[in-house]
């Protein structure tokens, strides 16, 4: 157990933005909300999974919708606690603590806001080890935990509680509500016991995000040292360096869809990479050959300082480094591939691990 201060939050926000794989929302917005909550209410207690009781109830809180909309439609600030409190009341059980459902710039920060405002602990795990665009795309879903009952609410005070027959129905019905609420809303879902969290959660993701942030902010040892440290920590691959020469985006059905083209620089001169995304980066093609696909992570960072970049912040002329990180082993199961593999997103090819594509021996 330890307490998170403002500097810890800054590091976590940076790392979560990297693990968000291009999605998860603007890290600056989430970071400022979390820092403000800590300044007002004090540091947040962080517990490991081994420190929580099996019978206690924990719930995440998150933003749902198109990340690009979140850069213009800022949260009011009380939506998350409202959603959290209302679902706890509906369940009729005391809520012991909270945790992020995904690693992402905003959605790793919102549980910190809730923990500070409600005076409850934050648990060092999440349900993805990265960010994904749909509600059923969690390791809790893989483990048979229901997404509902869940709350959907907006900055105006509209609120609904959903109970659905499958997690995919949770996604479909909640997405319709979020679109009507302006393509961005607050949710609380997947209420879980401590035992369910220990079985299904991605352990230590908050601490891992914090370590990434510490590496990125350490400029004194140079970019090569930073890059090697990141790759060592994440077991990742350096896939590309280049400049954005084309990007297209559209907001549709509550998602950001798009494609970016990157012209190679340095060791990748005269090469090209194309990345397609739906909130998060889905596939990366280098010279028309797939080099990474979901569920593995495609992460973008500023080429000069390695600060992570989200898909909504990418623009023409930006120089970026592309990293590929292996997904948690839970996503590499048959059910995991069925839930978040390339064929789910409409691509006509089977998933291959980033290690095998890059001719590395899997551990």
From TrEMBL:
It holds the Pfam family S-Me-THD_N. Residues 7-163 form the S-Me-THD N-terminal domain. This is DUF917 domain-containing protein. Residues 166-353 form the S-Me-THD-like C-terminal domain. SUPFAM superfamilies: CV3147-like (SSF160991). InterPro entries: S-Me-THD-like_C, S-Me-THD_C_sf, S-Me-THD_N, S-Me-THD_N_sf. It comes from the Bacteria.
């Amino acid at each position: 157990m330890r307490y998170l201060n403002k500097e810890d939050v800054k590091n976590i926000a940076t790392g979560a933005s990297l693990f968000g794989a291009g999605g998860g929302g603007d890290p600056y917005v989430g970071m400022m909300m979390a820092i403000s909550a800590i300044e007002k209410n004090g540091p947040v207690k962080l517990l490991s999974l081994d420190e929580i009781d099996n019978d206690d109830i924990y719930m995440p809180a998150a933003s749902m919708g198109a990340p690009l909309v979140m850069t213009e439609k800022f949260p009011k600030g009380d939506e998350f606690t409202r959603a959290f409190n209302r679902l706890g009341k509906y369940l009729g059980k005391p809520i012991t603590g909270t945790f992020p459902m995904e690693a992402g710039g905003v959605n790793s920060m919102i549980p910190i806001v809730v923990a500070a405002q409600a005076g409850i602990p934050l648990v060092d795990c999440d349900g993805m080890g990265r960010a994904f665009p749909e509600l059923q795309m969690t390791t809790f879903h893989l483990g048979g935990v229901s997404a509902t009952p869940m709350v959907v609410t907006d900055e105006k005070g509209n609120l609904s509680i959903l109970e659905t027959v499958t997690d995919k129905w949770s996604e479909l019905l909640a997405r319709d509500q979020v679109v009507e609420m302006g393509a961005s809303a607050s949710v609380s879902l997947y209420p879980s016991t401590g035992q369910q969290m220990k079985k299904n959660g991605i352990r230590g993701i908050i601490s891992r995000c914090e370590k990434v942030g510490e590496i990125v902010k350490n400029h004194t040892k140079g970019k090569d040292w930073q890059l090697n440290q990141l790759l060592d920590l994440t077991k990742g691959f350096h896939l590309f360096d280049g400049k954005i020469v084309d990007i297209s985006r559209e907001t549709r059905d509550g998602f950001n869809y798009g494609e970016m083209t990157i012209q190679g620089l340095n060791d990748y001169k005269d090469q090209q990479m194309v990345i397609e995304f739906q909130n998060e980066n889905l596939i990366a093609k280098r010279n028309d050959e797939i080099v990474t696909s979901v569920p593995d992570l495609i992460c973008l960072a500023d080429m000069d300082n390695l600060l992570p970049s989200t898909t909504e912040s990418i623009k023409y002329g930006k120089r970026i480094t592309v990293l590929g990180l292996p997904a948690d082993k839970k996503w590499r199961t048959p059910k995991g591939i069925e839930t978040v593999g390339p064929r789910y997103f409409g691509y006509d090819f089977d998933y291959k691990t980033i290690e095998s594509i890059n001719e590395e021996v899997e551990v």
